[in-house]
Amino acid sequence: MPMNNLDYGIIGNCQSAALISKTGSLEWCCLPNFDSASAFAKILDESKGGSFDIIVSENYEISQKYIQSTNILVTKWDNGTDAFEFIDFMPRYKEEANDSYYTQPEIIRYVNHLKGKPTFSVNYNPKLNYAKGETVNETNGDYIRSQYNEDTYESLFLYSSFDYNSILEGEEIELTDSHGYFLISYHEKILSQSIKREFLKLERTRVYWMNWSEKTTEYKHYNNEILRSALVLKLLSYEQSGAVLAAATTSLPETIGEVRNWDYRFCWIRDASMVIKVISGLGHTRVAKRFLEFIISVIPVKDEKMQIMYGINGQKNLTEEILDHLEGYKGSDPVRVGNAAYEQKQNDIYGILLDVIYQQFLEFNNTLSNSEELWTISKSMVNIVKNNWKKADKGIWEFRTEERHFTFSKLLCWVAVDRAIKIAELIGKKADHNKWINLRDEIHKDIYDNAWNEEVQAYTQSYGSDDLDASTLLMENYGFIDAKDPRFVSTVQATERELCNDGLMYRYKNKDDFGLPSSSFTICTFWMINSLYKIGERKKAKKYFDQLLSYSNHLGLFSEDVDFKSKRLLGNFPQAYSHLALIEAAINFSGGFSDEEELMSVIH
103, 239 in Cβ contact below 8 A? Predict the structure, then answer.
């Protein structure tokens, strides 16, 4: 595994999330919600950011794993004679009394004594409000309160079975009792806290995740990888609104020392729709239902003012700000909060969303709740596509200056009309069906004639361009072209030759607003794997797939990017895009082989 990797586990409860390092340090958490200001941000500034570290002598070996089928993380310290473990989680479980979920903004670090007389100390050092100013820690004997009083007021409460003064002073703690706990809460607790109460939360949370995991469809192969990715996607869904986040972090750079650092704690219509299609296909229809409710709440159903992204509570203004007091991950500034991309025009979002709406109509037909609102949205989006598909846009990769006629944007305009036609067929709206067919055919012909580059022998990034782009690999996946069509086969082969480097894919190689790309975009590698599989190059696809899986961190998690040379993970983490594509590829391999013997023949 590469040095200086993103060796973090994620815990969460669909309200917020936290990152725990391989050595048990809490280094990123925003409370009370995913998009709130950080309380711990050491990942973005090692000296200023704030953390909750566990400090032991050098003779302890540290190991880390998830409890099977859960998002509960266990870090173990063992020196041969003495051993203990921290079980980290954010509580999530069903409250029977009111048929809702307990998802309080709190982190529980449950401590188990395993053997001997282990000792450790803690560095409890929260830095509220993105560490913009001073956070003061003090105890009244019932808890430690961390308080920020400068430009805004913030507070945080720590409850523990251990002595509060010892915690604040960083004194050595000898673990003599069987169990202990630390509870970090955004709110002051009304009920008294105890080991028994935290253990009950742990058990209820464990049962919740195990029950959720049991509902996940199983396949012939790669079930562990599929389930871990599904658990990540579930963590990135926001309980309160149904929004789905692109990632849990901000400003983790695509390349160390460069400026492609973005805040991904928002709901992109594109990313979220792709996630929903995959995760509902695994049997988790409630996530899809909640997301469609979110869409209905944010989209003006008879208006063209649809954004490419929204805040997780439906916010429309996501003004970008630079936090210049933070040095950034490994010194990679700037650190940004907010994302100016919300103002961009991207014509692909209509097709991706309509694809999801069509899948839900297909599965539930007229029993789909909110079906009339969704049909109104569908008609509205076809009208938007009709008025806009011939216009240039910023494209899937969000070029910040130049607008072009991107092939992927045109493709998804075709998808929008195609899926609307299919929805109309399902619900018996023949008049709409008939008037849209000519529009679908017109867009198809336009792409067929103008996106194809005869000299390159491939569909290229944009009309009239020689540049190749990994997004064109999705033309088959969305039903625009057959996998055996010579044009698609040639596009896959040309794209692999141009954009694949040692089994890892560039999104594109041409210069963008920030120079030449220099890291691999993980979802694009999965797209290439799927495309190779579809055109019959299964042995190569399998080789690339297993190689890419080996680049995950120690817990099987992926960020947005992989460095070509060092193979370290880069970009925001964990990335929904990467994990949804992993699931799609794994399902392809599971569905495409009749038995273990055939699969093994491809492997070897």
Answer: yes
In a domain, 96, yes or no: yes
- Evaluate whether 573 touches 579 at the Cβ level (below 8 Å): no
Distance, in Å, from the CA atom of 80 to the CA atom of 60, rounded to the nearest integer, reads: 8
Q: Which residues, including other chains, have CB under 8 Å from residue 282's CB and lie 6 or more apart?
A: 216, 217, 226, 230, 583
Whether residue 2 is contained in a domain is answered as no
Q: pLDDT value at position 597?
A: 42
Q: Do 428 and 322 belong together in one domain?
A: yes
Res 601: pLDDT: 47
Structural domain count, the chain: 2
Do residues 341 and 192 share a domain? no
Structure confidence at residue 516 (pLDDT): 60
Alpha-carbon gap, residue 385 to 383, rounded angstroms: 5
R_g over Cα of the chain: 25
* Tokens matching residue 449: 């004639």
Q: Give the residue ranges of the chain where pLDDT is below 70.
A: 1-4, 303-304, 365-368, 398, 400-401, 511-517, 592-604
Look at residue 469 in the predicted model and tell me its pLDDT.
96
**Confidence (pLDDT) at 3:** 56
Beta strand residue intervals within 436-521, DSSP E: 452-453, 458-459, 500-501, 504-505, 519-521
Give the domain range for residue 235.
215-603
Is 319 among the domain residues?
A: yes
Residue type for position 58: E
Q: Are residues 241 and 200 in the same domain?
A: no
Angle CA 308–312–317, to nearest 5: 55
Task: Give phi and psi for 165, each to the nearest 5.
Answer: -65, -40
549 and 501 in one domain? yes
Residue labelled with tokens 């069987």: 178
Q: Which tens digits make up the pLDDT trace of 344-355?
A: 878 888 999 999
| φ, ψ at 39 (rounded to 5°) | -100, -25
Q: How far apart are CA 268 and CA 312, in angstroms?
A: 10
Phi, psi of 390 (to 5 degrees): -85, -5
162 vs 141: CA distance, rounded Å: 11
Q: Are 81 and 132 members of one domain?
A: yes
Q: What is the CATH classification number for the domain harbouring 69? A: 2.70.98.10
The residue from 161, 190, 213 where one domain ends is 213
**221: Cα within 13 Å, side-chain hemisphere:** 22
CB-facing half-sphere around the CA of 575: CA atoms within 13 A: 26
pLDDT digits over 103-118, tens only?
999 999 999 999 999 9
If you ran DSSP here, which 8-state letter would residue 396 be given? T
One domain, residues 60 and 124: yes
Asked if omega into 574 is within 30° of 0 (cis), the reply is: yes
Tokens of 106: 């709190």
Using alpha carbons only, what angle is made at residue 366 by residues 362 and 372, rounded to the nearest 5 degrees? 105
pTM, rounded to two decimals: 0.94
200 and 225 both lie in a single domain? no
Same domain for 293 and 184: no
- Which strand (E) or helix (H) includes residue 523? helix 522-534
Q: Which is it for the CA torsion 341, 259, 17, 164, positive or negative? A: negative
In this structure, what CATH number is given to the domain that contains residue 422? 1.50.10.10
Nearest to 66, CA basis, from 213, 195, 176: 213
